[in-house]
């Protein structure tokens, strides 16, 4: 469903991504891990069209989206969340999601229908009680769910999750893992996630890519990687931010 | 041919003055993220002060410059405390500073209109009416003196920023505000000094402008076009950048003024501004 | 059971709101019938005009967060269009106002294409400079009267009839524009604009074509301002770059929107009514410069202390107090 072929991106003299290959098949939950500064968020920004790749291609559902604009990519069915959550602060929770629905792929143009659909999504994420609360007054965990709700609202086929597990306690991590599986199983959405929290990655992903310094270090199932020497070395001595 | 050359030279001289006019604007933007749309209005104020000193007390504008700079610095400090400092506490500093200084500009402009009438004036000490003759080319002394003033003022500013302790503090705050605060530099005091200097330099530039152009309270809007253009082309906060950009803009003005009517030169400048903003907003001479 | 009651309450409120609206409009429309002193017609004309202008600005400025300091350019385009059409070709202003709006819209498309790509600060200053440069061009352009301005005759009716016609026209225009803006606010278009204001990058990931939406808001606002300008130009029977391109009008538009609260359609309306009434009074009885100085100061105060509008600020005070 999503494929990256030799993706490279530099910022001035810094090579953020170098000849990165990756692929995510439909229905999978794939993880991307790596030390801080290894280029994970940059990759997401390249995939979603915020920075163009300097070389290489990004292919989504068979279409080359390397040069596409962010809103075009969203319209094709690729949604993302942000590492530091960015809800639309001045709007209510319901408005946040309604706007996403109205511009999403279900082609809903009527405000009333949009709100109905938004409410359904909020129910799925157990946020419907806070629907009229301004997004700015939510607690951190709720803001994360709102971020997710907004991404789901555009009816994506692929969801890019940027460190959704950071700052959560064990209980919350468990709940979020269940949620991820629900999204994949009930809504049929493929998931590509970037994560630092090892527990969450090991518990959800079928395939994991490891990158370091913008290059692919290894790829495989969680079990394979746990035995991989290079991967273990890459993580030793690095400050874990769980 | 000599006509074009004259135009270019006039343009370059003017460009130097525009550089002084703009350097303070870039400084406040670079150090405090404050976009002072009222910057040019203080240039007009400076022109008025020099004018009154000349007309009422017979003091030559060049001699009045040190006093003028001091007074304008003081004015800048007041404006800083009343307007700029509160703005820096706002959520969106850039937007708040633009809107607030837009208001401030109107206030100062209309105060000048109220007290001094909106008629156009010129600052013309007797020596400005003479001209310099080099071969076929005539250069009037007004622009030359204006340019000389600007050159000195910019050099002074550069010296201050790079060779004095306070000046280096200003640069440090701009490049790394948190780091600067950590080493004990008081950011508010730095901002106050920066803003004061900015307004003082605007005032001096106003005197230089007044020797060439007629000025009146509302002309600051037009001068703002030059300020913004030079700052963007030269790179925000760079004194050398402003200087070079000023000369470049001056050159362009000189060339186009030889062939286009005056108003269209400004359209050209505006178009140039848009092009630079679209393709190289960090400036042609940045870094 | 509760739901039924709630629905009934909302229906009643909506009905009451519409009733109030119709009543107020009826009163305003009928006002000239009582033959009030001309001063009032002039005063209210200016109130309606500012209401219309402020709303047209707020489409982009308040809903999208792209603050334009040069909205006057579109207003002036409209004013000059009717002025030229009337003085050179003797055409009726009410049709040519629409033409003025069209020209303003075209200007917005041409300028908007580069300028709307710029970040907030650059957009704002560019918009300011657009107005400045246009003023300079018009000062030197023979066709529009350069620095003498254009003067043309009013309609061959009594002053009263003239004033009344303009009063009614501007009233209808203000009402129409307010309704348009209100409709946009509550529509999908408005939702998209507000998403852009809150976080433009996030809006893009939501599938919102941000450049297109911004352009639509910009052009619509420009068109409406052009139409308003068209009527105004004819009303004044005189246009001149210094007067018609006045920066002070730009400031007032900004102030009224921020003062009233730029997030909804009611805010600019409230700001326009309150402040243009006050403005007219101050200008008439104290002086133009003092009025501008006061307004400049008020803008500084509003943007620093009450960025969500004076009403919100007052509510906040009473809540804390």
What does this structure look like?
The complex is a heterotrimer of chains A (about 240), B (about 290) and C (about 325). Chain A is an alpha/beta fold. Chain A contains 9 helices and 10 strands. Chain A folds into 2 domains: about 1-75 and about 155-240, P-loop containing nucleotide triphosphate hydrolases (Rossmann fold, 3-Layer(aba) Sandwich), CATH 3.40.50; about 90-155, no CATH class. The mean pLDDT of chain A is about 85. Chain B has one domain: ABC transporter involved in vitamin B12 uptake, BtuC (Orthogonal Bundle). Chain B has 11 helices and 2 strands; from the N terminus they run ααααββααααααα. Chain B has a two-stranded antiparallel sheet. In chain B, β1 and β2 form a beta hairpin. The mean pLDDT of chain B is about 85. Chain C is mainly α and about 325 residues long. Chain C has a two-stranded antiparallel sheet. In chain C, about 55% of the residues are buried. The mean pLDDT of chain C is about 85. At the B-C interface, α3, α4, α9 and α11 of B face α5, α11 and α13 of C.
Topology (elements, then pairings):
The complex is a heterotrimer of chains A (242), B (287) and C (321).
Chain A: E1 2-11, E2 14-24, E3 29-33, H1 40-47, E4 55-60, E5 63-64, H2 70-76, E6 78-80, H3 93-102, H4 111-124, H5 140-153, E7 158-162, H6 170-187, E8 190-194, H7 198-204, E9 207-212, E10 215-220, H8 222-226, H9 229-235
Parallel strand pairs in A: 3-8, 3-9, 6-7, 7-8
Antiparallel strand pairs in A: 1-2, 1-4, 4-5, 9-10
Chain B: H1 2-32, H2 39-57, H3 61-88, H4 93-116, E1 131-134, E2 137-140, H5 141-163, H6 165-175, H7 177-182, H8 187-210, H9 220-234, H10 239-259, H11 262-279
Helix pairs in contact in B: 1-5, 1-8, 1-9, 1-10, 2-3, 2-4, 2-8, 2-9, 3-4, 3-8, 5-6, 5-8, 6-8, 9-10, 9-11, 10-11
Chain C: H1 2-30, H2 38-61, H3 72-89, H4 93-115, H5 120-139, E1 150-151, H6 159-185, H7 188-198, H8 200-205, H9 210-236, E2 238-239, H10 241-244, H11 247-260, H12 266-285, H13 288-305, H14 310-320
Antiparallel strand pairs in C: 1-2
Helix pairs in contact in C: 2-6, 2-9, 2-11, 2-12, 3-4, 3-9, 4-9, 6-9, 7-9, 11-12, 11-13, 12-13
Average pLDDT of chain B works out at: 86
Largest sheet of chain B: 2 strands, antiparallel
Give the biggest sheet of chain C: 2 strands, antiparallel
Chain pair with largest interface = B-C, 45 and 45 residues
Strand order of the largest sheet of chain C: 1-2
Number of helices of chain C: 14
Low-confidence stretches of chain B: none
CATH T-level fold name of chain B: ABC transporter involved in vitamin B12 uptake, BtuC
